[in-house]
Amino acid sequence: MKALGIVVGAAPLPLVCSSGRNHRFRVSSSSSSPGFKTVEQVGIAAAKPEYKPGVFDDMFLNLFRNKLVQEVGWDSKEPGYDGLIEVAHRLMMKGTSNSTTVEAAVRILRSLFPPYLLELYKMLIAPIGGGRIAAMMVARVTVLTCQWLMGPSKVNSVDLPDGTSCSSGVYVERCRYLEESKCVGICTNTCKFPTQTFFKDHMGVPLLMEPNFGDYSCQFKFGVLPPQDDAILKEPCLEACPNASRRRMVAKNVDVTTCPKT
Question: Per the database record, which ranges form the Beta-carotene isomerase D27-like C-terminal domain (predicted)?
């Protein structure tokens, strides 16, 4: 049977595709820093996945960084992606609470879209087919436009609350944003929670994001509502987190096993 697809630009994207590959990792606690996660890969080389920059990647990066700088009121002297990560750290440190950081990140996401486009999508597209069409569309657009930020990713099938499955997922093999920031708080408060809020409130598409802090992969599930009590809030800091490292240096009596921004 010929695969059904949606054509975006010149290339058809399949509506059904397999889930991402499984990686064998073991997560253990460091003896010197209890509660901090380290990754020991078993039998598989820990090489980063290759990603060939697209024609519009620099444009997307500069657009996103400019909006981020406008919100933060500060820019890094570092060029490119490294500078973007530094500004993201400043965004998280600037927030007086988790909620203010999330709200700031949502404003940044909204500013990336032309006026009324989000409202029209939510009003006209989101209700079609019980939300499935909108969920599949945003999954494909995410893969096409966000690999510069996240790294290699692909559309896959996810289980929906009604017991059916739908090709409205996005599997990120190894999230570049998480790996470069090395911070659970930046992942959750400048990416996961604001992105979930943005799609649900401003595009009418429920979204659950499931980052894996062991292998840096991430599963997007468009069409699935996030739980009210997300277990990610209990995640400890990554051992490599620069913010946790600073806290250990200046306050040895402070418990840094729990991220202050989760």
Answer: 148-228
**In whole angstroms, what is the distance from residue 217 CA to residue 111 CA?**
27
pLDDT digits (tens, 9 = 90+) for 40-56: 333 334 567 776 777 78
CA distance 105 to 72: 10
DSSP string, 179-228: HHH--HHHHIIIIIHHHHHHHHHHHS--EEEEE-TTT--EEEEET-PPPS
Q: Which residue in this structure is represented by tokens 């990792």?
A: 25
Mean pLDDT of 213-235: 94
Phi and psi, residue 219, nearest 5°: -110, 120
Token look-up 């062991």 returns 214
| Distance set, CA 199 to CA 69, 123, 167 (Å) | 22, 13, 17
pLDDT digits (tens, 9 = 90+) for 182-210: 999 999 999 999 999 999 999 999 999 99
CA distance 118 to 82: 30
Q: How far apart are CA 213 and CA 234, in angstroms?
A: 12
